[in-house]
Amino acid sequence: MWANYIVQPEEDGRMGMVGAGAHGGLAGVKGVGRATRRTPRINDSQEGKIKLAFFVAIVGVTLTVLGVGTEFWVELATPKTWSNNQTCQTAHYGLWKGCTRTLLVDDIDPERESCGPADLPGESNCTYFKFFTNGDNAVIFMKTTHKNLNIAAAILAMIALSMMVMGAICITMSLSKGVPFFLKPASFCFILSGLLVLLSILVFHQSVLALLASDHSIPLHHELSWSVACLGFSGAILIMGGILFLILSLPYSPWEKCLPQRNSSTI
Asked: What is the pLDDT of residue 251?
């Protein structure tokens, strides 16, 4: 006599077969259907955390754009008494443009030995560098720039901005689709962009040292300005945002393994 089989759902969502024998005994039979693999989705709690991490990354992107677009990467200043008159000269430049400014000695802090700072009011003359057009080096206070280092710093900064755009696209797709798949690529993009920003600062500083070593006829005091400070903060913020995206992309929080697990009571 054929056994009567009853189809029952199992706990994992598959359909199982349970058969009743002739003597009343039940024999469990494994289900023949395969479980459908579900695509992980982003819940409301994860979405809020992703948006918060995205806001952190946007702050880093904003600081990067501000630093790259301004010309206050470094300030060069002659001594106040170098020209032996009532004025002195200072210069500041960035990746794309350089400016020289003539200041009144009376407007400068008496305790300051060099001319400046560059944000004091004075006659200013700004010109764009010709590194990217005809390949000419710039001359600042009889010192010649090394265009290869300046171009390398600019390329690193532009690649960093491109990686930020790609990371922002990944986060936007992840939030619109509701899947965490794009969080890891976004994490890679933001961490790499932060490292490239910091590397761009190092290369630019080497170009400044090469500029100062090209001629020693005029003594100059140099200091990195607020544009570099913006880039330094942006690099750290971008790396932190990338790490946050990497943590959110994991199926579990890293600290969950350290927490004691509750054993379910058995009856």
From this structure: 73
Distance between CA 69 and CA 18 in Å, rounded? 71
Angle at 69 between CA 66 and CA 74, to 5 degrees: 90
Q: Is the pTM of this model over 0.85?
A: no
Tens digit of each residue's pLDDT (9 = 90 or more) over 135-169: 888 888 888 888 899 999 999 999 999 999 999 99
The answer to whether the beta carbons of residues 208 and 222 sit under 8 Å apart is: yes
CATH topology of domain 44-251: Butyryl-CoA Dehydrogenase, subunit A; domain 3 (1.20.140)
d(C-alpha 150, C-alpha 56), whole Å: 29
Closest Cα partner for 161 from 206, 225, 226, 95? 95
- Neighbouring C-beta atoms of residue 130, cutoff 10 Å: 12
Q: Is there a contact between 75 and 89 (Cβ–Cβ < 8 Å)?
A: no
d(CA 210, CA 223): 14
Which amino acid type is present at position 68?
V
What is the DSSP track for 43-87?
A: -HHHHHHHHHHHHHHHHHHHHHHHHHHSS-SEEEE-BTTSSSSSE
Are 124 and 100 within 8 A, CB to CB? yes
**What angle, 0 to 180 degrees and rounded to 10, lies between the N-to-C axes of helices 147-177 and 226-249?**
40
Four-point Cα dihedral 95, 100, 101, 102, nearest 10: 160
Domain ranges of the chain: 44-251
Res 114 pLDDT > 80? yes
